[in-house]
């Protein structure tokens, strides 16, 4: 997967992608991240990328020319997805992340401080995406969140042990609680079932915990899961969970 990120602050992208699992993904060639700066495409001697808004008003607006030319410099094919980061966009979630992970090429357009000339969205045919209902100073952090999440969902990016298959949200439930050595610490002990060696019981306990954790922390997700659950084993555990909670 290739990510091209249009940003006035390429170092924000390059720095953040030079650590941990993302850096490993780049090294192994599963992902490629290329930050390009629209400022390098200005035709103005002062390298101006923004101007005052037509009709007046506070702030500056990112101009068409540097963004159009920067966008045009990137090679695309019919599998390329173009995303513009904006608090007005469709909210990013795990489902969108998995769908985007099937693409071969994603172009992300970041703003900073200010708004875009509306024609940038039209020209690039970009899909507007937000990472949540709050406003950040720019699109770089949202782009990084998306790159991180999408990369985890690309086949071959994570090893078996970290498999995204077991992630929170992967099948509509949150993750079960995890424990490591020692068995007891400050009077707090590890649930007995996890040290008993019965793999079937462990799997059942974990699945039930997923349901309990989701019910407690995200009742909205639990309700959705409950509505679409058809698996016999899951339905049995679901009944136990509901009985325990008397709902
Ligand atoms: N730019 C500023 N705030 C944003 C948000 N919440 N999501 C995506 N891009 C943004």
Q: Please state the overall shape, judged from the principal axes of the Cα atoms.
A: elongated
- The CATH architecture term of the largest domain is 3-Layer(aba) Sandwich
- The percentage of residues in β strands lies in 15-25%
Structural class computed from helices and strand pairing = alpha/beta
- Tell me the CATH topology of the largest domain: Alpha/beta knot
N-to-C SSE series? EHHEEEHEHEEHEHEEHHH
Averaged pLDDT, please? 95
Name the hetero compounds present.
adenine
Number of helices: 9
Radius of gyration (CA) equals: 23 Å
Give your account of this protein's structure:
The radius of gyration is 23 Å and the shape is elongated. The protein has 2 domains: 2-159, SPOUT methyltransferase, trefoil knot domain (Alpha/beta knot, 3-Layer(aba) Sandwich), CATH 3.40.1280; 184-246, Trp Operon Repressor, Chain A. Helix 3 runs parallel beside helix 5 and helix 7 packs across helix 8 (219-228). It starts with a strand and ends with a helix. It is α/β, with parallel strands linked by helices. The protein is built from 9 helices and 10 strands. The chain has helices at residues 10-16, 20-27, 64-72, 94-100, 118-124, 140-152, 199-217, 219-228, 232-245, and strands spanning 2-6, 32-36, 50-51, 61-62, 80-91, 105-109, 115-116, 127-130, 184-185, 188-189. The strands form 3 sheets. A 5-stranded parallel sheet has the order 2-1-6-5-8, with helices on both faces.
């Amino acid at each position: 997967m290739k990510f091209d990120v249009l940003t006035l602050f390429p170092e924000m992208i390059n720095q953040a992608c030079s650590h941990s699992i993302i850096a490993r993904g780049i090294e192994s060639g599963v992902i490629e991240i290329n930050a390009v700066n629209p400022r390098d495409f200005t035709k103005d001697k002062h390298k101006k990328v923004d101007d005052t808004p037509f009709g007046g008003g506070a702030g500056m607006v990112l101009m068409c020319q540097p963004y159009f030319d920067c966008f045009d410099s990137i090679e695309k094919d019919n599998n390329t997805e173009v995303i513009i980061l904006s608090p007005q966009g469709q909210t990013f979630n795990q489902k969108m992340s998995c769908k985007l992970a099937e693409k071969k090429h994603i172009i992300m357009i970041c703003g900073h401080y200010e708004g875009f000339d509306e024609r940038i969205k039209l020209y690039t045919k970009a899909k507007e995406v937000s990472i949540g209902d709050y406003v950040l100073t720019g699109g770089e952090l949202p782009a990084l969140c998306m790159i991180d999440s999408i990369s985890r969902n690309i086949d071959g990016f994570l090893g078996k042990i970290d498999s995204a298959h077991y992630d929170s949200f992967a099948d509509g439930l949150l993750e079960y609680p995890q424990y490591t050595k020692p068995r007891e610490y400050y009077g707090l002990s590890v649930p007995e079932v996890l040290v008993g060696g019965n793999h079937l019981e462990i799997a059942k306990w974990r699945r039930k915990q997923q349901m309990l954790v989701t019910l407690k922390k995200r009742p909205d997700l639990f309700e959705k899961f409950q509505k679409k659950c058809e698996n016999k084993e899951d339905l049995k555990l679901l009944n136990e969970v509901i009985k325990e909670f008397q709902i």
